[in-house]
Amino acid sequence: MDLTHIDENQRPKMVDVSDKNQTTRVAVASGMIQMSDEAFENVISNNNKKGPVLQTAVIAAIMGTKQTGNLIPMCHPLNLSGINCDVEELPELPGFKLTVTAKLTGQTGVEMEALTGVSIGLLTIYDMVKAIDKGMVIKDVQLEEKSGGKNGNYKR
Q1: How far apart are CA 140 and CA 58, in angstroms?
Q2: What is the pLDDT, as a whole number, of residue 16?
Q3: Residue 1 has what pLDDT?
Q4: Are 63 and 85 in contact (CB under 8 A)?
Q5: What pLDDT does residue 24 have?
Q6: N or C, which terminus of the chain has less Cβ within 10 Å?
Q7: 76's torsion region: left (phi>0), alpha (psi -120 to 50) or beta?
């Protein structure tokens, strides 16, 4: 198996995508954060001392998605054409599910961008609520689906 991010001298490299076709590429990732009932109530009642938790998490997820090329060493900086974030309340957990959809027309996929956005959004929720519950659990960060590119479509 040829490793795409290692050169002939076994040094790391960023893959050259200049010969790849531009296609529309979309990736959807999600993850959850589980917390105490008290923390959950604090978030949904919008009573957090640090401000509106879910709105801030959505902004953080968008920012994280846009910064992926600066955070993950072998990711290309991308000209994203769209980012959408959705937060779902999960009272039975209790907690929240964050879903990020990233889109572009380009030569490389956006899976890492969607996954990074989810991770940063969930970490932001943790940061804003940690004074109430340090035992929160971030879990199930995963790629849900992706389309476009040489490898085609994927759906979990």
Answers
A1: 18
A2: 79
A3: 58
A4: no
A5: 94
A6: N
A7: beta
53 in Cβ contact with 128 (< 8 Å): yes
Please tell me the predicted confidence (pLDDT) of residue 71.
Answer: 95
Residue 53 is encoded by which pair of tokens?
């938790």
Which residues of the chain fall below pLDDT 70?
A: 1, 3
In this prediction, residue 18 carries a pLDDT of 81
Which tokens in the block code for residue 107?
Answer: 């030569």
- The amino acid at residue 114 is A
CATH of the domain at 130: 3.30.70.640
Which residue blocks in 4-136 are alpha helix, DSSP H? 37-44, 53-66, 68-71, 111-129
- Residue environment code for 87-126, b if the CB has 16+ CB neighbours within 10 A, otherwise e: beeeeeebbbbbbbbbbbebbbbbbbbbbbbbbbbbbbbb
Tokens of 73: 């060493």
Q: Please say if 86 is a catalytic residue.
A: no
Residue 128 to residue 3: CA distance in whole angstroms: 40
Q: Which of 7, 19, 127, 133 is catalytic?
A: 127
Judge whether 72 lies within some domain: yes
Instruction: Give 82's strand partners.
Output: 103
At residue 22, the pLDDT reads 87
Structurally, the chain folds into a number of domains equal to 1
